[in-house]
Amino acid sequence: MCVVCTARGCTSFNATRTRNFSCYHVLQGTILGATGDTADMDEEEKLLVIDRLHQVLRPFLLRRLKSDVEQELKPKIEKVIKCNMSACQWRLYNDIRNRGAIELQPKSEADPSGKKRTTTNIMMELRKACNHPYLFWYDTRPDMYGAEIIRSSGKFELLHRLLPKFKATGHKVLIFFQMTKVMDIFGDYLQWTGHRFLRLDGTTDSQRRGELIEIFNAAESPFAIFILSTKAGGESLK
Questions:
Q1: 178 shares a domain with 122
Q2: Does the reported pTM lie above 0.90?
């Protein structure tokens, strides 16, 4: 008996042709030879092959829901809290959207033109503006932070209000980040405000990841906040 365990791949019928064929070939490699080469097929023939692979793979799939596996698992409650951007964020956002440029240094007598940086990836720069303005001055950010690290970002200001309430009521908090530089800035904020936290990102080795999860889940753990990168954290917690 052969069992293929996968979190994605053949469990998704939207998977690529190559991935579908690989799943099938491990189980019962008798279709398309040993390679699954479809280079000489036209688009219609490729679609027929994919449909055939889906039909063949379906009997091998076993899908289990969390509610079926873990009966004591509490139901997920999702609440979306929208927050506005700060004045600094709005200025950066509008400059990027309207002019495709970021004013890194304001105009002065010494430098009448100011210092600007043009951008080609506008969507990425807009995402950075929505997270924290310090991402644009990351290399020259101050060594010591003050209240400006909170006031300059709407998300940071919201979390600054929520985290003490979570801590007072005994909750533990997981915060996921798509940008590790935002993690760096948020880690500086947590240190400045005195919050004890753990961090897991792509630079954390596999053994240390397990140790961090055990420390965080311990009943008497002094750490109530765990910051994680979306990719590394998601893989470690599965």
A1: yes
A2: no
